[in-house]
Amino acid sequence: MAARKTRAAIADRLIRLLTDGGEWDGTEQEEATLLALLARLALDEADLDALHPLTLQEQAACLFETARALLCARGKADPQQIRQILRRTAPRLQERQIDRLCPALLALALPVIELLLRLQRKDGSALVHQLLACATGAQQPLTQEVLANLTYTLEQRMAELLCHASAAELRRRLADAFRIALPTTQEIVERKRLEFAAHRNLPALRHVQVPYDFDGRLGGECTGHEVPSTKGRALNWAFPFADPRSEMWAFYDAESRPDPDVLRYVAWRRLTAGDQFQIAQGPVYQIRNFWQTGPISKVAGIFQAIAHEWMMPWQLREIPFIGGTNIFATRELILRIGGFDPAVLTEDMDLGARAWLQGDTWPEFLPYASSEQTPPTYRGFFRQRLRWGSGYLQVCEKIKADSTAPAEKRHYLLRIYWWRGPVAWTLCQLLALLPLVAMALGLTGHLDARAVPDWVHTVLSSYSVFYLAFALFCLLHYRRFMDPAPRKVQTAGFAQIFLLPISAFFLPLPYSASLLLKLLHRAPTTWVKTPRTRE
């Protein structure tokens, strides 16, 4: 529902721009949609043999990604980045095919970028000239002048098509562009379902769409009016569609990449432990888009990976921790405790607590990691962690009010949750203030560094060296879980790791905010999907 409303608003704005003209003041999403529209137009007017053996859908995706990458790089084409786009979109391609497709994509991206800049009323002559030089360097048979003429001709034909297209035709073309620029999880799953169904010996996907009026309870009903969406609500609707022969259910996010051997391990544990193996939680490394995130998200991703790999095995000895993804649980346990709670913001934490309180089952550690993304911007990071913090407090309130669970168990969980939650958040926030306060006092002359004992300077210097070495170790250790990036991007990203004194203040800030909002009775109550980096 939300995606449909967003798309309708974007389509209305772009149609007005294309039919009435005017100044461009579009958002990033609108620019991406317009770029995808122009990419499809270019393919309609160009010779598609140049992009064989890509399918039309793959051609559109590759051309869109190439044009966007060139725009973001200000015309500095990186051949390796274009090759990565081709490998990601069509893994079946051979190296010689990629060698042939790269210059063709560069040449087709030129009129797309030039027309986009013209529609945005921007002077792109310098950018286009730089791109022409890159394209002719990659495609030797074409001189720069010939390619410039071809670019101009194709751009004019595309502009003419847009000029004579009706509003209905533009809306139809924009609907196709949305599936390229802003695909929903449902569209991606449906595309993969059809792809898998066309081949033998591939997994069978079942695509289930949740009705807008489903009340969210396991075995619930449709109410006739819209019900706020949550992850727990969607899962409760999907459970009845599972194969009745299944014993274990696995839970992953849409962008998760599980370890290839995790199913073998779970099968072995189930066969050897039997009914004693009920629920397991594995580590999750939110670092796959590490090089595409901001400095605070980088530090947060590294710290979370360390916590999950090194601390989770010990943490699971004290609390029934469930983290939302890379979870395996028995069908019998899930149904026995009533599925997920559709009303809480952290349905995973609630599931772990109820598995012990109601199901008398303690999660065990799953020694196989899964990788996923972390929010690329601090705004997305803040909203995600604010939801986690608010949901954490929400589950604590729920446990406190649950008179059906044994009092001894409830008191134990509340005590552990209190120390690991509000107390730890407050302490971390106060400690994070110390470097900033010391820095401010030093800059304003209120703190004389000479008054600090020599041994303190030695300790701080040693800590800096230790942190540098530890940061380098972590990057090398988790590098295989990160998507590749150009060397310049990696160098800049590594430098951002050393913003820890500043980042350390912002990391616990969402949790501190959740405490404050709870005290003010303004805690968030709706579940918001976390923005991700395009893959």
TrEMBL record:
Q: Which domain of life is it from?
A: Bacteria
Q: Which residues form the Glycosyltransferase 2-like domain?
A: 253-463
Report the InterPro entries cross-referenced here.
Glyco_trans_2-like, Glycosyltr_2/OpgH_subfam, Nucleotide-diphossugar_trans
Q: Which GO terms describe its molecular function?
A: glycosyltransferase activity
Which spans are transmembrane here? 423-443, 455-476, 497-517
In which compartments does the protein localize? Membrane
Q: What protein does this entry describe?
A: Glycosyltransferase 2-like domain-containing protein
The keyword Chaperone appears for this protein: no
Query: Principal place where this protein is found?
Result: membrane
Q: Give one Pfam family, short name only.
A: Glyco_trans_2_3
Membrane topology term: Multi-pass membrane protein
Which SUPFAM superfamilies does the annotation name?
Nucleotide-diphospho-sugar transferases
Look up the record and report any one GO term of the cellular component aspect.
membrane
